Amino acid sequence: MVIDNVIAYDAAPQGQEGPWVTFARMETLRSPKTLHGPALGLPLLTFRAWYTAQWGDEAWAQLDKIPKDQWMDYLVWFRQVLNLPIQNGVRMTRISAAGELIAIDVEGAVNTTVYTRKLVLATGRSGLGGTSVPDFLQHVDRQYWAHSADDIDFAALKGKNVAVIGAGASAMDNAATALEAGAASLDMLIRRPEMPRINKMTGIGSQGVVQGMHLLPDEWKWKIFDYVAAAQTPPPHASTLRVSHHENAHFYLNCGIKAVTEQAGQLLISTSQRQKAYDYLIAATGFKNDFSGRAEFANIAPHIRSWADARYQTAMGSARTHMLEAPDLGPAFEFQERVAGACPMLQHIHCFNDAAMLSHGKVSGDIPAVSAGAERLVRGITAALFQEDIQQHYASLEAFAHPELLGDEWTDSSPLIKHEVLL
Ligand SMILES: Cc1cc2nc3c(=O)[nH]c(=O)nc-3n(C[C@H](O)[C@H](O)[C@H](O)COP(=O)(O)OP(=O)(O)OC[C@H]3O[C@@H](n4cnc5c(N)ncnc54)[C@H](O)[C@@H]3O)c2cc1C
After folding, report:
1. Nearest in space to 380 (alpha carbons), one of 407, 358, 360, 398
2. Which mutation among 7, 10, 239 tests ligand 1's pocket best, with the greatest number of atoms within 8 A of CB?
3. Which of 367, 370, 371, 377 for mutating ligand 1's site (highest number of atoms within 8 Å of CB)?
4. Architecture of 8-129+288-387 per CATH?
């Protein structure tokens, strides 16, 4: 049994946490360089402070966007300077109830069961439901295709005919990486008839959105995220140019996939436009919120209340799967039960990642407002611990006997006054 105060476990090796130096294949972050990120309002902890301390104000002024590897270097420094209690190479594999506590099985560098009162799932984009893979790929041999978040051997794509499905940021970044590795040809197969051009959410960025989204009525939350989903997020300008400046890159819009079959050592892809054989396919098809896809959540998944269960009504707008699957979270990102009493530990498990967006806005799972999200989370957990331990706090209140006054700081004149009055 491990007993500790606060600890973070990460399955990734130290310095490789998150997507940055593994499956994020862009050159720079999309977010502006001035983002506050995880700095918790402390200017000296920002990327800017870290950067200018090393390369100066002039270099900062010249910097356009943050190179992604440099962002990882900053996160490594951030962890070191705050001496954060993180154990790497440790994967959580199971969550179960243990009386008043939550038992989590961890494997890897440490193999044990850890008991905790509160559990935060800061498991990233792929950490709740995993990758989203279209049905037409489910039974195709993995030697012919990968999801964009997989570990892909790009050197092996040299001289090959490659297809990429999707038109988001990851589609462009993976396509560009394949082209730069020497792919003979690269086709972007894009279902939508037009590329989205406007990143709608950036148009209303303000502290109001950060602090107020979670307080909006359900109708407004749904309306906003439904609208944003319908408008779709464009791939970044630089990532798109990184693909299109290759002469052997081709964009096919309005090109839905009908079927994918293996044929003579290749993939035959039938689309709404034509049929063509490829050596390799990269599916840049995003992530999902479906908890049942992750073994470590098997015990809690059936009990988690989703927006489909509790909050969505048809009058709110389109029934989008990723929104219907989103967990219906409480004020401190805690899960709620589908059936009251069926899984009480859910109120102590906090979902601090992309899946929280519909309940809480974009304050987890993205960098810019993550400090606001973290503060909301920690305040909620702190308040809950106090309420749960109220008996103990009350006993401490009664037992506390440390005097601030010793009794010799003043002279009591009141007996004399009383005496005078009596006379
Ligand atoms: C390709 C790509 C590009 C992105 N670019 C941007 C960007 O430019 N700007 C932006 O704001 N956001 C971007 N994002 C979103 C980005 O993921 C987040 O902003 C950021 O990484 C969120 O940090 P996080 O700590 O919440 O999650 P992550 O950084 O994803 O970290 C989650 C960690 O959880 C660990 N983990 C998961 N499951 C388990 C388990 N069972 N046991 C133990 N450990 C586990 C993983 O190993 C991982 O290290 C991007 C995402 C992707 C996928």
Report:
1. 360
2. 10
3. 367
4. 3-Layer(bba) Sandwich (3.50)
